[in-house]
TrEMBL record:
<feature type="domain" description="Amidase">
    <location>
        <begin position="61"/>
        <end position="457"/>
    </location>
</feature>
<feature type="signal peptide">
    <location>
        <begin position="1"/>
        <end position="34"/>
    </location>
</feature>
<dbReference type="InterPro" id="IPR036928">
    <property type="entry name" value="AS_sf"/>
</dbReference>
<protein>
    <recommendedName>
        <fullName>Amidase domain-containing protein</fullName>
    </recommendedName>
</protein>
<keyword id="KW-0732">Signal</keyword>
<dbReference type="InterPro" id="IPR023631">
    <property type="entry name" value="Amidase_dom"/>
</dbReference>
<dbReference type="Pfam" id="PF01425">
    <property type="entry name" value="Amidase"/>
</dbReference>
């Protein structure tokens, strides 16, 4: 026979119902608040302001980007995997924001960041350089830059795709492809190159699939995709950011840098990731002398172009002669002048040109890659491969997924055939030192330049072999809607000056726009 439930049970049910209604109301209010904040194209500063005004939480923001990735990534292939702990990290950031006083948290606290998939994370995510050869390998620790991001309270959103093995397995014809995620697509024109190797970081920033991101560069891998996808990329001075825990090509040129939608965001990221790391001792110790007291944010000056001497390398612009791009750059030159810059365009490029007809970089890089990669692989806690020879064998065995027959692994095979730093490699290294001294450095010092100005990423080789910094800023779109950037390059440690120049140009032009068909 049925009996009436006791009073205590009824009270319990009523309480549960009230809690459910309360939770639903809170969720509805939170959703309305998040919708009131325009998250697409939002800068880190705007997001922090929304946090402080209780209009947004890190969890809501992280969910926004996770949903963007679910919707857009099947087409764009800019992200390899998302972090299963991203929402937990966002929740922790929300709790910390309530507990800690305003002003005590970093500019990246609670901000979701994507990391190129050659940057190690000691967590549930893989670090594979886009290859199945390193799937389920276990790294010994977070990369140096990742440890700094964690301390700053950033939310590690996921791993961005890349040209596999940082574009050191096959030629540039397959830029943006890796076995784990397929072909990355330029969100402005799906048939255009996204450029590599940090293609996924640039694609994801352009398509608003993350707030900020990190890429790496050996020769052009930050500056080129930034230019091709209308984002800002900073290639720092060698050693300014740690390469500890980064799958290497060559420690002589590798660097880690921000790729973001604005100069200010890139500078906020740079401020967090620079500094000494015992796992990249020599380079970071030497470069630490360049880090300014008070950080880099102080150089975000609207009038940053005033009084700057900028070298215009005319031959780099000649290939655009007669095109709308050439007209756009002429307009940019006028803007630079109006903002107070002095343009120097009668430059002696004789020694500078020699850099671009020399093969020393390739000779040295091949030998250095084998040594550096073997060291990295030996340090892994768990790994299916322990040497470059193992990776080559893996690719041959798994041709169907690594597309070895189609894409090949010519650079790997050439590197495996090297035998350390022999006389030929030493000669190449000496030659690059001379070319940097008598080329880029001489050009900059003799003409008392603050920066060299070039279109897109044409200057990357000169910056790469000397460990010099550069910043790419959106400069326009061609007749097919494909973006192109303007690059400002300088001598080692010149980031403060380059930031002033880049920010001044960005604020005077404000060219960047999101890809229209992805809205």
């Amino acid at each position: 026979m049925a009996t009436d439930p006791p009073l205590a049970l009824l009270q319990s049910r009523v309480l549960l119902a009230l809690l459910a209604i309360s939770s639903l109301v809170l969720q509805t209010v939170a959703l309305a608040q998040a919708q009131a904040v325009s998250l697409e194209e939002a800068s880190a500063h705007e997001l922090q302001l929304a946090f402080r005004q209780n209009k947004l939480t890190s969890r809501q923001l992280t969910n926004f980007y996770l949903n963007r990735i679910r919707r857009l990534n099947p087409l764009l292939r800019g992200v390899i995997e998302v972090n299963p702990d991203a929402l937990r990290q966002a929740d922790r950031a929300d709790r910390e924001r309530k507990a800690k006083p305003h002003g005590s948290l970093s500019a990246l606290h609670g901000i979701p960041i994507l990391l190129k998939d050659n940057i190690a994370t000691k967590d549930k995510m893989n670090t594979t350089a886009g290859s199945f050869a390193l799937l389920r390998s276990v790294v010994p620790r977070d990369a140096g830059v990742v440890a700094r991001l964690r301390r700053a309270g950033a939310v590690l959103l996921g791993k961005a795709s890349l040209s596999e093995w940082s574009h050191y397995r096959f030629s540039s014809d397959h830029s943006g492809w890796c076995a784990r995620s397929g072909q990355g697509k330029n969100p402005y024109n799906l048939s255009a190159t996204p450029c590599g190797s940090s293609s996924g970081s640039a694609i994801s920033m352009a398509a608003n699939m993350g707030a900020v991101s990190l890429g790496t560069e050996t020769d052009g891998s930050i500056l080129c995709p930034s230019s091709s996808n209308s984002v800002v990329g900073i290639k720092p001075t060698l050693g300014l950011t740690s390469r500890g825990g980064v799958i290497p090509i060559t420690p002589r040129q590798d660097t880690v840098g921000p790729m973001c939608r604005t100069v200010a965001d890139a500078v906020n990221v740079l401020d967090v990731i620079v500094g000494f790391d015992p796992y990249d001792d020599k380079a970071t110790r030497e470069a630490s002398k360049y880090i300014p007291r008070g950080g880099y944010k102080q150089f975000l000056k609207v009038d940053g172009l005033k009084g700057k001497r900028l070298g215009i390398v005319k031959p780099f612009f000649d290939s655009y002669s007669g095109t709308p791009v050439a007209k756009a750059f002429e307009s940019h030159f006028n803007t630079l002048r109006k903002q107070g810059a002095v343009l120097v365009d009668r430059l002696d490029l004789a020694d500078f040109r020699k850099i671009y007809s020399d093969s020393s970089e390739g000779v040295a890089m091949s030998a250095e890659f084998k040594l550096a990669l073997n060291t990295y692989l030996r340090d892994l806690v768990v790994s299916p491969v322990r040497s470059l020879a193992d990776v080559i064998a893996f690719n041959n065995k798994h041709k169907h997924v690594e597309k070895t027959d189609e894409y090949g692994q010519a650079f790997f095979i050439a590197a495996e055939a090297t035998n350390g730093i022999d006389k030929t490699v030493k000669s190449a290294l000496q030659n690059m030192t001379r070319l940097s001294r008598d080329g880029f450095e001489k050009l900059m010092r003799q003409n008392k330049l603050d920066a060299l100005v070039t279109p897109e990423s044409t200057v990357t080789l000169a910056l790469a072999i000397g460990g010099f910094p550069g910043i790419s800023v959106p400069a326009g779109y061609d007749e097919d809607g494909v973006p192109y950037g303007i690059c400002f390059g300088g001598l080692r440690g010149s980031e403060p000056t380059l930031i002033e120049i880049a920010y001044g140009f960005e604020q005077a032009t404000k060219i960047r726009r999101p890809p229209s068909f992805l809205r």
